[in-house]
From TrEMBL:
SUPFAM superfamilies: MetI-like
Gene3D superfamilies membership: MetI-like
Gene Ontology cellular component annotations, sorted alphabetically: plasma membrane
Membrane-spanning segments: 12-32, 69-88, 95-117, 123-140, 180-201, 221-241
Domain ABC transmembrane type-1: 61-240
PROSITE patterns: ABC_TM1
Membrane topology listed for this record: Multi-pass membrane protein
Species of the source: Telmatospirillum siberiense
Key word Membrane present: yes
Protein name in UniProt: ABC transporter permease
Length: 272
């Protein structure tokens, strides 16, 4: 176990990936699965390499990234902004919260045809769909995080005549940072789902369109290729948000390290 703990962090997912590919290879060989149901790994790998070399995949990847990132940024900004507004104002909460709750209950796929009619069949409709999907995790997490601020600390700051802006910037916002980044973590996955759903409904480019068109032709390798690329994009996006979380909410990592040191110290005392 000591030797395993000393390995670099990226080794562990590589081992899991190798095991999955090995099981995939063995299943195709042993059960003689047809290519249209489950293509062999080497066929998907060849298709990926050829798609990158001849440039056929780049337009699809670019379209999906533009839709995902554009909607993610706008939806996250709206979610955080409205979350702050409702958390800080009871009046806005009375007016807007019931309407936003009702909108949240509507399946976003049901809104897809309406969005297509309003925004057209281009990139704009996919971005709007991604905005709707990303908005609510940030909105809810922002409200919850701001309202969980330490009341004793707020009262202490008010006792020294701290302004409302000071309380928000120095007490409420730092306490809500983890909740907000939790919403960002959820939102990046939902953004990719929203972009793919939009491409399923109507598109001529994108990884969702690639998978959808391949299903019509029963091209199993192309479908698996598109799904793998979506998985890689999702993992990269989630890792970027986690890295940003560690650097922005730096005090959490310090608390974690301090707690770990305390536990190790207790263990050493117990063993001694």
């Amino acid at each position: 176990m000591k030797y395993l703990a000393a390995l670099p962090a990226f080794i562990y997912p590589l081992v899991s990936l190798s095991a999955i590919v090995g099981i995939w290879f063995a299943a195709v060989r042993l059960f003689v699965i047809p290519d249209y149901l489950l293509p062999p790994p080497w066929q998907v790998f060849d298709l990926l390499v050829n798609g990158f070399v001849d440039g056929a995949l780049w337009p699809h990847i670019g379209a999906t990234l533009v839709e995902t990132l554009g909607g993610y940024v706008v939806g996250s900004a709206l979610g955080i902004g409205l979350g702050v507004l409702l958390a800080e104002s009871k009046m806005f909460e009375r007016f807007l919260l019931p309407l936003l709750t009702g909108l949240q209950a509507v399946p976003k796929v049901a809104l897809g045809p309406i969005i297509l009619v309003w925004c057209g069949y281009g990139v704009a409709s996919k971005i709007v769909l991604v905005v709707l999907v990303c908005f609510f995790p940030l909105f809810i997490n922002t409200i919850n995080g701001l309202r969980r601020a330490d009341e004793d600390l707020l009262d202490a700051c008010r006792a020294f005549s701290a302004s409302r802006a000071f309380l928000f910037l120095h007490v409420k916002l730092p306490s809500a940072a983890s909740e907000i980044f939790g919403g960002l973590q959820i939102g990046i996955s939902l953004a990719l789902i929203g972009a793919v759903v939009g491409e399923f409904l109507s598109s001529q480019r994108g990884l969702g369109y690639l998978v959808s068109s391949a299903s019509v032709n029963m091209s199993g390798a192309t479908m698996v290729e598109g799904v793998l690329l979506l998985a890689v994009i999702g993992m990269c996006g989630a890792q970027m948000v986690r890295t940003l979380h560690r650097h922005v909410v730096f005090w959490e990592s310090r608390e974690t390290r301090t707690e770990s040191r305390r536990r190790r110290g207790k263990m050493m005392v117990w063993e001694g």
